[in-house]
Design goal:
Layout: E1 3-11, E2 14-21, E3 30-40, H1 42-49, E4 58-59, E5 63-71, E6 83-86, H2 96-99, E7 125-129, E8 133-135, H3 148-161, E9 168-172, H4 176-188, E10 191-195, H5 199-207, E11 211-213, H6 220-227, E12 233-238, H7 244-250, E13 251-259, H8 272-277, E14 281-282, H9 292-300, E15 310-315, H10 319-325, E16 328-329, E17 334-335, E18 342-346
Parallel strand pairs: 9-10, 9-12, 10-11, 12-13, 13-14, 15-18
Antiparallel strand pairs: 1-2, 1-4, 3-5, 3-7, 3-18, 5-6, 6-8, 16-17
The structure holds zinc ion (ZN) (2 copies).
One zinc ion binds at residues 41, 43, 62-63, 150.
């Protein structure tokens, strides 16, 4: 049987380059993809740290683009040779959440995600259900195509926020998610500022022409008050997972807070009376939701400056080295400053 290279998550702290048999189409609705490119996500880092749900012996990688090389007997909408991006979150289509359009709350969403609970794109080949595949236009290259699902989550955020042209926007955390929100905000809002602690990512924010503050060096509440002529932010996007309290201090009366970053180890204290008194809108949301096609459209029309987004493109065989740049020492599982925004592996 023919073999392929794959980066396999064995257990917490252990990602291994293995030689695995190339998977074969078995289900009638499956396609076999020859993976072209795959991004490394903060979620992959969290899985390795044991801070995200996981399944041992799984090929990681959920941000990928590939070419269809084989199709199951019931596949009707794709053909061999099609180039597609993946929505890695498989929604059942039958639960009441799916059937009422709230697909991000599908009761099965956590059981089957590609690259988390079943084999994903850190491999030369991957089996994917047909309905998870989105054909790509030529204007989106293989590198950008890895970020369709990432943008789809952010588009869900934008749909929820309903950002207005006169809004003041503050984004806490300038990782890939903060970056994408900042690009939209620059296009739409009156004024936007971001916060970040890693020097590399601060330099990327500056390269994008953004106002950026390091919360370890300045008082962000003071800064946002000054920046907005005493008003504070109409919208605070919390893209770190650990700064909800900070976000609530930075938002103006009647404003919106979007807690977007995820870290299940974080607890926060809120004063319910203040949320009521200041009419604060806290808007939770999860993943993308009917937003893959909109994300493709946005990239196709080049609506976002994606140049400084991609720090590095490396081969799969060097993938293990990338985690260091993403702030995780694999040997000790200790955190370190990040020296990359997004790293993509090319197969
Ligand atoms: Zn991701
Ligand atoms: Zn469902």
């Amino acid at each position: 049987m023919d073999k392929m290279n794959a980066l396999v998550f064995k257990e917490v702290g252990k990602l291994v380059l293995e030689h695995k048999p190339i998977p074969q189409v078995k289900e009638p609705d499956e396609v076999l993809l020859k993976v072209k490119t795959v991004g490394i996500c903060g979620t992959d880092v969290k899985i390795l740290e044991g801070k995200h749900h996981f399944r041992p012996n799984t090929v990681l990688g959920h941000e990928f683009c590939g070419e269809v090389v084989d199709v199951g007997t019931h596949v009707r909408h794709l053909k061999i040779g099609d180039r597609v991006s993946i929505d890695n979150n498989i929604r059942c289509g039958f639960c009441s959440f799916c059937r009422m359009g709230l697909t991000s709350q599908c009761v099965e969403i956590k059981t089957s995600a590609l690259g988390v609970m079943r084999d994903g794109g850190f491999a030369e080949y991957c089996l994917v259900p047909e309905k998870q595949c989105y054909p790509l236009p030529d204007e989106i290259d293989d590198i950008l195509a890895t970020q369709v699902e990432t943008l789809a989550t952010v588009v869900n955020g934008m749909n929820t926020l309903l950002m207005l042209p006169y809004d003041y926007v503050l984004i806490l955390g300038f990782g890939p998610i903060g970056y994408l929100f900042a690009q939209f905000s620059k296009n739409i809002a009156a004024k936007v500022a971001v916060t970040e602690i890693d020097p590399f990512r601060i330099s990327v924010a500056k390269e994008c022409g953004l106002t950026v503050w390091n919360p370890n060096e300045v008082d962000v509440v003071e800064k946002i008050t000054e920046f907005t002529y005493g008003r504070k932010a109409d919208i605070v996007i919390e893209a770190t997972g650990n700064a909800l309290e900070q976000a609530l201090k930075c938002v103006t009366p009647g404003g919106k807070v979007l807690p977007f970053g995820m870290d299940s180890s974080i607890l926060a204290s809120v004063v319910p009376n203040e949320i009521t008194r200041w009419a604060t809108k806290i808007l939770g949301l999860y993943l993308g939701q009917n937003t893959m096609v909109p994300a493709i459209r946005i990239y196709q029309e080049k609506r976002l400056n994606m140049k400084p987004f991609f720090t590095n493109v490396i081969p799969l065989t060097e993938g293990l080295n990338a985690f260091d740049c993403l702030g995780l020492d694999l040997a000790t599982l200790q955190h370190k400053p990040k020296s990359a925004m997004k790293i993509v592996m090319k197969l």
